[in-house]
Design goal:
Length: about 350
């Protein structure tokens, strides 16, 4: 099922509305026991409000008043820090569960006004304010297990990557947007620019494109864990047709991070994700790196910054990097945990 969802998420032949409906339908099939489900693509407008760019789609005919009413409640909330955390993250959890971590229980009053006790969602949000969210409304408190959270983190990472392309901008000319174009029939690169012109980078993209083709027809959902969201840490590879011709294009889709201090671009990307509050496991998946490589990169950053622990590194860089890169505030329990790690405890 996860592979099928990724195929729908990366289908460039659909309109944005078709993409929204197809993605919601596939997610609903993955959660058949849930009721009152809907999917919505969204982005933040100039005023910072969350708006549904193409409306929403509900296979269960949830009323427009319920969905738009809850969205208005989030936009009008005084706790915008928690709202930002809910909509600008890649996760799978219940709302009560996530708000408990954020110590922002008051936001639960918004769905309760519509006779909804809890919300379970697959969140695919980006720092630029674009995203897609699959939501299920419930009449009692719910909790999502750690294993399911991790499995859906991979799927949500791919949906978020495509949302940055499909929702963040209005252009659908994928050839014009591409840094690299590969003809699948001839096996030749027909266009490349910027870093993608490098022979080694191009070979890496070709190998990744062939691996994705193999994954697309796999019946093993475990391949999703090996199907990285970004290729070479900066591109999303998608299939695009031009008449009978089939191409793979590399769409620039890396996070909005500038090279920091004396860090390499790769080190800057890893640090940026850590400051967003992401785990090392997520960084590994998103950038297509092994967990060992991520640990080694973090070690290199700590050495350059003159700190001994990752906790010290984050404390030091929070006040130096742009505000948009700041992670949400930690809860009391999280602070205790981080202090323990900083003091060398397991």
């Amino acid at each position: 099922m996860s592979v099928k969802i990724l195929n729908v998420a990366q289908d460039t032949a659909t309109t944005r509305r078709e993409w929204l409906e197809g993605l919601t339908t596939m997610c609903a099939e993955a959660f058949p026991d849930f009721d009152r489900r809907f999917g919505a693509a969204y982005r933040k407008n100039a005023a910072g409000e969350i708006e549904m760019t193409d409306g929403f789609y509900s296979p269960d005919a949830i009323s427009k008043e319920t969905i738009t009413g809850m969205l208005s409640g989030f936009n009008d909330s005084l706790d915008q820090r928690a709202v930002h955390a809910l909509f600008n993250e890649v996760s799978h959890a219940s709302m009560s569960q996530r708000l408990g971590e954020l110590e922002s229980y008051k936001l639960l009053e918004i769905p309760r006004a519509f006779d909804v006790k809890d919300v379970v969602a697959v969140g695919s949000g980006n720092s630029d304010g674009s995203g897609f969210m699959f939501v299920s409304l419930h009449d009692k408190k719910k909790r999502v297990g750690k294993i399911q959270q991790r499995e859906w983190m991979y799927v949500a990472a791919h949906i978020a990557a495509m949302a940055r392309i499909r929702i963040g901008g209005d252009s659908t000319d994928y050839f014009a947007l591409a840094d690299w174009i590969y003809d699948k029939k001839t096996g030749r690169v027909v266009d490349a620019k910027f870093v993608a012109e490098n022979k080694d980078v191009s070979q890496h993209l070709i190998a990744a494109a062939k691996r994705i083709d193999k994954n697309r027809v796999s019946k093993d959902d475990d391949v999703v864990g090996k199907w990285q969201a970004l290729t070479a840490g900066r591109w999303t590879l998608v299939d695009v047709s031009d008449g009978p011709q089939k191409y793979v294009v590399a769409l620039p889709n890396d996070p909005p991070v500038c090279q920091t201090f004396a860090l390499t671009m790769q080190q800057s990307r890893v640090l940026w994700f850590l400051l967003q509050g992401h785990s090392q496991a997520f960084v590994s998946y998103e950038l297509g790196l092994t967990p060992t490589a991520v640990s080694r990169i973090i070690g290199g950053i700590r050495k350059k910054m003159g700190v001994r622990t990752t906790v010290e590194l984050l404390r030091l860089t929070r006040g130096v990097l742009p505000q948009s890169a700041l992670p949400p505030a930690l809860t009391g329990a999280q602070k205790e945990l981080m202090d323990g790690i900083a003091n060398g405890l397991s």
